[in-house]
């Protein structure tokens, strides 16, 4: 656990960041101007609170920074939390942003004998599936008694079936447009995804008033947002 007296909040880069910013504003956390400059190479930013800094990291890394105490609070998707299942992380609040789903997909023209349709899936004895989420994928199918060979990929998932690496993929799906553009069809949903406020459990014990206060502030902001919708 870091002994940094400042409160460090880890935020994910990418599309979710834009959805987080109004929530930060609602709890009166305002980053320095450079935070909003796309060309900036900085990863750590001061805020209007002298005791709070923001760090901006890859979405998969937010959970790791918080779990190991390098950050005290973070925003991470349910997909990331399920993949790593860090015991050091407490996720007290669903922020209701970053909505999507983790789904199994395959080529629309896959031969019937190899297709993992919702109806025939449990009759298939072995599946080779590429995913950024090998642990989640393995657990999902193991619970259904289906043996799989997970192949870890960090990107370009849609290419894997086309190039013969696998028949199916498990990936995040929002509109489904990317799947369709690459000749894939969604077969089934593994889990629904939203982003959560996460905190380091040790920080909760050592800084209970501070951490609890910020959790309450975020909860109030989400409640107000929901009532206004």
Short description:
This protein has helices at 15-26, 59-67, 78-84, 134-142, 159-162, 177-181, 201-206, 208-228; strands at residues 7-12, 44-46, 52-57, 73-77, 89-94, 100-107, 126-131, 147-152, 168-173, 184-193, 195-200. The chain has 229 residues and is α/β, with parallel strands linked by helices.
Tell me what the structure shows:
There is one protein chain. The protein is 32% helix and 30% strand. It is of the alpha/beta class. It folds into two domains: 7-98 and 194-228, D-Maltodextrin-Binding Protein, domain 2; 100-192, D-Maltodextrin-Binding Protein, domain 2, CATH 3.40.190. Strands 2-3-1-4-11-5 form a six-stranded mixed sheet, sandwiched between helices. A five-stranded mixed sheet has the order 8-7-9-6-10. Helix 4 links the parallel strand 7 (126-131) and strand 8 (147-152). It is elongated. It starts with 6 loop residues before the first strand and ends with a helix.
């Amino acid at each position: 656990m870091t002994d940094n007296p400042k409160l460090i909040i880890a935020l994910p880069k990418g599309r979710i960041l834009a959805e987080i910013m109004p929530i930060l504003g609602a709890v009166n956390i305002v980053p320095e101007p450079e935070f909003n400059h796309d060309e900036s190479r900085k990863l750590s930013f001061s805020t209007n609170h002298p005791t709070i800094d923001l760090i901006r990291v890859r979405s998969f890394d937010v959970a790791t920074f918080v779990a190991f105490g390098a950050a005290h609070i973070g925003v991470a998707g349910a997909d990331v939390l399920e993949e790593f299942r860090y015991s050091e992380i407490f996720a007290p609040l669903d922020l209701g942003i970053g909505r999507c789903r983790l789904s199994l997909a395959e080529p629309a023209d896959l031969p019937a004998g190899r297709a993992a349709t919702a109806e025939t899936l449990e009759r298939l004895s072995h599946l080779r599936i590429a995913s950024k989420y090998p642990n989640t994928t393995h657990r999902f199918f193991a619970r259904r008694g289906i043996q799989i060979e997970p192949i870890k990929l960090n990107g370009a998932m849609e290419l894997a079936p086309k190039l013969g690496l696998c028949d199916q993929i498990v990936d995040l799906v929002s509109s489904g447009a990317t799947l369709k553009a690459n000749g894939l069809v969604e077969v089934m949903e593994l889990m629904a995804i939203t982003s959560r406020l996460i905190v380091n459990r040790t920080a909760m014990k050592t800084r209970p008033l501070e951490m609890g206060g910020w959790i309450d502030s975020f909860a109030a902001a989400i409640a107000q947002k929901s009532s206004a919708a």
